[in-house]
Amino acid sequence: MKTNIIAGPCSAESQQQVMATAQELRDLGISTFRAGVWKPRTYPGNFEGRGEEALPWLQKVQEELGMKVAIEVATPLHVATALRYGIKIFWIGARTTANPFAVQAIADELAQALPAADGTKLLVKNPTSPDLDLWIGAIERFRKSGVKNITAVHRGFSAYEKTEYRNQPMWQLAMDFRRRMPDVPLYCDPSHIGGKRELIQPLSQKALDLGFDGLMIESHYCPDKALSDADQQLTPQELGQMIDSLTVRDSNTAAEGLDILRKQIDELDSQLIDIVERRMMVSKEIGQYKKQHNLTVFQSGRYKEVLERLIALAQKKGIDKRCAKLIFEAIHEESVRQQLEN
Ligand code: PEP
Ligand code: MN
Known about the structure:
Layout: E1 4-8, H1 15-27, E2 32-34, H2 55-65, E3 68-72, H3 76-84, E4 89-92, H4 94-97, H5 100-113, E5 121-125, H6 132-144, E6 149-154, H7 171-180, E7 186-188, H8 190-194, H9 200-209, E8 214-218, H10 236-245, H11 251-292, H12 300-316, H13 321-341
Parallel strand pairs: 1-2, 1-8, 2-3, 3-4, 4-5, 5-6, 6-7, 7-8
């Protein structure tokens, strides 16, 4: 397998659908099967999952097909019920992560279910809103409950404006998550980000390029008949083709080339500082000249002229105007500070 992949339908709908989908996925080499049992639906009256009735089917997937099974839990009762059927991989959905009361109640249930819950693995999806602290806070609550095996899942963020994505990827936020929690494996769920089949491949590739540790993808043996999220599910066969098309960046062979480039960057950054130092020396001389001739340190005409010239120069070289402005403003501020010290 090119990367870690968890796959399965949005919802467990029938024993036949679960077994047929799981079998095909297992034949692709996928070892963890996902299926929603209790579904958080936005409007009432939609298919809300089969509930406990589906758990024996998932137990069968574990026992007969030798796969591991992951389901969504949103309440302490879901956890207790699933544990009775031997299911030990739980994902916390985006709507649940957003609610610290719900997170705490599930964490408390897991803590008191130990040692029966020993070996439990949790996948914590990001909350619906782009709130990094809420995501990290949820993971910390679970850690405190004694669950050691925790993976984060990036599934995108809600936005009022309709865009090509069902949920905005906001990759920067996922990368900030990685910086803040470097020891927590990070998966991507391209199905709930994209919302449509054709976006799953490009989103998965992007996630691999950014160094995600795995993917959680929805797959149904007959997506058009799916009772939830029909537009974004791939058949196991389509999933297999999608996986084949992915390029995994090999971190070892890539590392050498990267090293050479990073050395160049380090050298250029040192040169930037040397140039700023030389600029400050000239600027100090100007400061002394202004003092001797009774001129003000800040001269707005000159400031405007220098800024405009630099922005035009930067734009010619494909550097964004905002970047040129920020660099110049920072250098100018330091120049003024040093001239005033004179
Ligand atoms: C799901 O995985 O089917 C699901 C409901 O996900 P999310 O919490 O990301 O919306
Ligand atoms: Mn879904």
